[in-house]
Amino acid sequence: MCEQCRLGEEGDVGDPSGPASPVPPCCYCCRGRLRDITTPTPALNTRRAGARVTGAVAKGSERHDTTVNERTVRGPYRTQSRAAMLALLLVFVICPATCEYVREFEVSEGVAIGTNIGYIGDSNPGQPLPPPPPYLIVPVPGSAVDSDLRIEQDTGEIKTKVVLDRELRSSYSLVAIPHSGENIRVLIKVKDENDNAPTFPSAVMNIEFPENTPRDVKRTLAPARDKDLGIFNTQRYRIVSGNVNNAFRLSSHRERDSVLYLDLQINGFLDRETTAFYSLLIEAWDGGSPPLKGSMTVNITIQDVNDNQPIFNQSRYFATVPENATIGTSVLQVLATDTDAGNNGKITYSINRRQSDRENMFQIDPKSGVISVNRPLDFETKEVHELVVVARDNGDQPLETTAFVSIRVIDVNDNQPTINLIFLSDDATPKISEDAQPGEFVARISVNDPDSKEEYANVSVTLEGGEGHFDLTTQDSIIYLMVVSRPLDRELKPNYTLVVFATDMGNPPLHASRKFDLQVTDMNDNAPEFDQTVYYANVLEVADPGTSVFQLSALDRDEGNNSVITYSIRDTPETHSNWFKIDSRTGLITTRTHVDCETEPVPQITVIATDSGSPALSSSATVKVTIRDVNDNEPIFDQSFYNVSVQESEAVANCILKV
């Protein structure tokens, strides 16, 4: 036969992986001639179990096998006998006029069950009319014809059995065989409908942009995907809501995989302080009519950069403080704000000492901005203090701003005398060192009477407590100084309770009092003390190095480092102190080497206890160690040979030789 009349195309008939090229109808060029069969015909299922027939027609070395299963017989074929069927198959196999027809149908996905697709017996435009029904229907394996389509063998009508879905199956293939034995290859294509909306991979996407991101910078977003094809696929995106001040815009491009990829671009200038968060609702639309859409929420966090300097709520501050305000008294609080976030918006306050308050009369809390008194104030010395306060953020490149503070010191007027007590210790707390000499200052006491400055001299100040170790002195009856009057000893009394009384000369007199506890701080004025000056110990002569000999301890009445004791052994070779060593912390004496009773039966050790004060103090004690002898030496004559002469008249019992 000619190439066009070959049975089927090369490969499987109706390959569901894609539509086959249409085969022209029979050209009738082979009618009347024996058909040259070069490829096997498809298997024919007769729809009745058990009957399989194989026929063969040979030409040269070629062989044509045909297998029929009775289960595929439908309609009138069900009443035919097995012999009739076999005869029909033999006719089909050897019929010289056999030829192939092709019928192609299209049906839209989603049509109702039972929708007519077409008739096999009808012809496509411009093609010969296929043989009429009834037909033997042979589905291509794997094409799901039996499950999805209903084909009437008597009429050749094809209907849908289920709702078709192109996204699950795009075509169906089968072979219809009429009585005449020709093959009618049937291909049913499922047309795409807009039944799928664009779908984003996730409903919410979170991204971040620094607020100094330049315009037109892109950030790729997850694209929406649509299972439909062509115009029914994703066609466009748009921002529905949340795009405050039109800060963003969308751009898209389609690539070879037909996916419309999506980018989010900066459309203007971002400012976290104006808008710190955006929640964009983005929709994806396909090209259907009406179009379908999907949506995704894109949450955008604007990251802060340090682009704003702190700002004070006032450019100039004014405050007053009484001159008797104690150190630490709050004067006022400045406040600056920074619209940046995190460390960029965290503010640290300070006083510009180069431009103001070089005497450190005031201090400012770096976190709260509270300005407080740092040193005693004196209205008569300086009435107004001008401060330059700096507010600086904590960004990588910090920004700062300044404000001016005017503090006026006021003269306190009160009906009752007031006592301003300032302790002159290094940290302004009530304490005095025990080595303070008589006349050394402890505290500064100022007493004010609100009546008038001239009346300050009429205020009497007295001190009670202290057991005579402290006294008051003044030169102007205005400022009093508490001084040491007698030597102090912390080890005898570490604390004193004192009361300052101020009494004016009014009528009746008014008075005020101030009670405080004064701590006497330690000085290294006590050396370590042993409870004995001489200790006795013993050790065996055969003791190994490291053997414990004796442990002694000393006490230091000081406190802190002044009472931390270190032990050591004074080097005295003449008393064999090098035979021993001592633990510097515990005072445990052990043997350093082997000891020898014959060399020194009672070696002496001088132990020194040194404290950690500055300067360090020390004391010593003697440890006498008795070495208990063991029989570790054999007798030895002082010479190996003795020679003596004896007179014959020597009396009995006289000594003639000593060895």
Automatic annotation (TrEMBL):
<keyword id="KW-0472">Membrane</keyword>
<dbReference type="InterPro" id="IPR015919">
    <property type="entry name" value="Cadherin-like_sf"/>
</dbReference>
<dbReference type="GO" id="GO:0005509">
    <property type="term" value="F:calcium ion binding"/>
</dbReference>
<dbReference type="GO" id="GO:0005886">
    <property type="term" value="C:plasma membrane"/>
</dbReference>
<dbReference type="InterPro" id="IPR002126">
    <property type="entry name" value="Cadherin-like_dom"/>
</dbReference>
<keyword id="KW-0732">Signal</keyword>
<feature type="domain" description="Cadherin">
    <location>
        <begin position="99"/>
        <end position="200"/>
    </location>
</feature>
<dbReference type="InterPro" id="IPR050174">
    <property type="entry name" value="Protocadherin/Cadherin-CA"/>
</dbReference>
<dbReference type="Pfam" id="PF00028">
    <property type="entry name" value="Cadherin"/>
</dbReference>
<feature type="domain" description="Cadherin">
    <location>
        <begin position="432"/>
        <end position="530"/>
    </location>
</feature>
<feature type="domain" description="Cadherin">
    <location>
        <begin position="531"/>
        <end position="637"/>
    </location>
</feature>
<feature type="domain" description="Cadherin">
    <location>
        <begin position="201"/>
        <end position="312"/>
    </location>
</feature>
<dbReference type="GO" id="GO:0009653">
    <property type="term" value="P:anatomical structure morphogenesis"/>
</dbReference>
<protein>
    <recommendedName>
        <fullName>Cadherin domain-containing protein</fullName>
    </recommendedName>
</protein>
<keyword id="KW-0677">Repeat</keyword>
<dbReference type="GO" id="GO:0007156">
    <property type="term" value="P:homophilic cell adhesion via plasma membrane adhesion molecules"/>
</dbReference>
<keyword id="KW-0325">Glycoprotein</keyword>
<dbReference type="InterPro" id="IPR020894">
    <property type="entry name" value="Cadherin_CS"/>
</dbReference>
<keyword id="KW-0812">Transmembrane</keyword>
<keyword id="KW-0106">Calcium</keyword>
<keyword id="KW-1003">Cell membrane</keyword>
<feature type="domain" description="Cadherin">
    <location>
        <begin position="313"/>
        <end position="419"/>
    </location>
</feature>
<dbReference type="GO" id="GO:0060429">
    <property type="term" value="P:epithelium development"/>
</dbReference>
<keyword id="KW-1133">Transmembrane helix</keyword>
